[in-house]
Specification:
The chain is an alpha/beta fold. The chain has helices spanning about 20-35, 50-55, 60-65, 70-75, 100-110, 130-140, 150-165, 180-200, 215-220, 225-230, 235-245, 260-270; strands at about 5-10, 40-45, 75-80, 85, 120-125, 140-145, 170-180, 205-210. Keywords: ATP-binding, Nucleotide-binding.
């Protein structure tokens, strides 16, 4: 692979329904507006939804790459704002139970991208399955999407605890989604840190809140990204603010700042190294 720095960001959430995929897509488009070349990997293998979320149809998916029928470039589809999307197959249980070689082969396919990518956003499945853990541990940055619901906070804490205790992850970036006011976002972050500060040795950073906005619901119904069809909506403005913060995150001045680190880490996770 080329020695081109790539920011690899896993967007995850302990609970389903917190808007994780919406955050992934709109953050990607906002980063593209800043001039970044962005690829979104739908890593919810088996229950893919980004293509549905954006109303994009694809004749080929990751499954075809694994079968050796095509390469990754042939699978990628163009999304709004110039982002590229790697769609996963929906309803295919085998893809949620990849073996070591298949999982490694999937990510190795990204070597073909070379210098043609600045940011890789990995939209994981919900929960703490092996596949979710592998992708999160391989990424450089982890964005944890949380909503102001007891189950979301509890599940987010459980995910942080597992990743910290069993896999040594220390830093987590927190996005409060669907908050009524900026104050509510900070209050939600405070609820989470109150528990993590007491029981865990982790560093949580609040990177912003996305307001509850009817424009998001309307965009979803239209199978569009809110930042694309309602660029002046409150949520769209918040996503652009989030993108500016993410864009300012420094790349590690080590091999960890390159895409091959992501590949190596994922393979190591798969084989239990």
């Amino acid at each position: 692979m080329a020695k081109h720095p790539v920011q690899v960001i896993a967007v995850t959430g302990g609970k389903g329904g917190v808007g994780k995929s919406n955050v992934s897509v709109n953050l990607a488009i906002a980063l593209a507006e800043l001039g970044r070349r962005v690829v979104v990997l739908d890593a919810d293998l088996g229950l893919a939804n980004i293509d549905i979320l954006l109303g994009i149809s694809s004749n080929r998916t990751i499954e075809h790459v694994l079968a050796g029928e095509c390469d990754l470039r042939e699978v990628m589809v163009r999304g709004p704002g110039g982002i590229r999307i790697v769609p996963a197959a929906s309803g295919t249980q085998r893809l949620s139970q990849l073996n070591t070689m298949e999982h490694a082969g999937l990510i190795q396919a990204f070597s073909d991208l070379g210098d043609d990518i600045d940011v890789l956003i990995v939209d994981t499945a919900a929960g703490i399955s092996d596949t979710v853990i592998n992708f999160v541990c391989a990424a450089q940055e982890v964005i944890l999407v949380v909503t102001d619901e007891p189950t979301s906070i509890t599940d987010a804490y459980a995910q942080i605890k597992l990743l910290n205790r069993d896999y040594g992850l220390f830093r987590f970036r927190i996005v409060a989604n669907m908050v009524r006011t900026p104050q509510d976002g900070h209050a939600l972050f405070a609820k989470l840190t109150k528990v993590t500060d007491r029981f865990l040795d982790v560093a949580l950073q609040y990177v912003g809140g996305i307001p509850f906005d009817d424009a998001v619901k309307r965009a979803v119904q239209r199978q569009k990204a809110v930042i694309d069809v309602y660029p002046r909506a409150r949520a769209s403005i918040a996503f652009r603010g989030l993108a500016k913060k993410v864009d300012a995150w420094p790349l590690p001045q080590t091999p960890r700042g390159h895409l091959e680190f992501f590949v190596d880490r994922l393979v190591q996770q798969q084989v239990g190294v």
